[in-house]
Prior knowledge:
- Chain A has 165 residues and is mainly α.
- Residues 115-122 of chain A have low confidence and may be disordered.
- Chain A has helices at residues 3-15, 22-30, 32-48, 60-114, 117-120, 132-163.
- Chain A has three domains: 3-48, no CATH class; 59-114; 118-165, no CATH class.
- Chain B is built from ten helices and no strands.
- The interface between A and B is large, with 33 and 49 residues.
Amino acid sequence: MKCNEAREVMPDLAAGLTAVTPEVKAHLDSCAECAGKLEAFRQTMSLLDEWQAPEPSPYFDVRMRARLHEESAKQTTGWMRWLRKSVLAASFALVMVVGVSLVRMNSGERGNNTVSPLVAVGPQTQAEPGTAVGDLQALEKNQNLYSDFDVLDDLAVQADVTANP
Amino acid sequence: MDRGLLAMAGVPQAAPFEAEAGLAGEGLSDADIMLQVKAGDDSAFEYLVQKYRRPMVNFMFRMAHNNAAAEDLAQEVFLRVYRSRESYEASAKFTTWLYRIATNLAVNHARDTRHERPENTVSLDEPDQESGHTLDLPDRTPSAEDAIVRRERVAAIRQRVQALPERQRIAVVMHKYQQMEYRQIADVLKLSESATKSLLFRAYETLREQLKEFV
Lengths: 165, 215
């Protein structure tokens, strides 16, 4: 065994963590420097023993438990917050989807309602003027036109009111 | 934790934390128990706290600067273990993982409080925050004068250990006071075993030189 190999095991030997092997003993017997170093290390280790650590305080467990409880509560709160947010987001999305669907359905129905079945027949079924169906179609168109005029009249009145209070 | 640390942990005392004595009896390793914690078994976590609270407080006491900080830091180690339970992989020894968390915390704490540490003084009236002893303890010291000398010696030891370069200091605390093996210290510090032996030899050589007046 060489000096550097003996020195590698010296901390363990000095701390009493391993026993001196015959190989190490043979080296120490033949190397006064290493033997002296090991003895000095043993004295240092013995001195280091004086630095004692106190026992954990009696309140350690109580405080530990309180901190763990706090930690669990924090994690539960975080999880609940996440769940609440998710549920809220899902609900909002559902409301939006249902709302949009309803609006589309209503506008579809209204579109169908505003177009008279007669007019809805379309240009390809446009009846000849003078025939009964043609006259009815003309009346339907006029009715739509008049209702547009009424709206325009209302707007004009409102504009007047605003202009001349 | 093969040698002294388990002995240091000792038999779990009757404490508010009621560790499940059966876990160790079932021949489960700490890593197995930690996997139980991962699966949601809080009593398994309490067992680990009970088993390692003393070694952790001791480690933090020597890495930090007073007993109150040591307990806070030890508790923080366990909280971090608890927080990380879901990502725990039993690829390394549980104690290596535990000490790596503890070392990181202690090093950060030491850096954060570097400017807050008061100069060491010996007071006859107040208990020593560093050594944990009071001067008037009815211990082996036959007189107050001897007690002062002893406290100065302990303060010197603490100062010399804490003045070591960071990795040397951690290695000495783990080796001398936690009685960890070279291999495990190497794993915690992410060094080779040979580098760890060399690190420890240099650290003890420094301490031997600086403390020779007290030997």
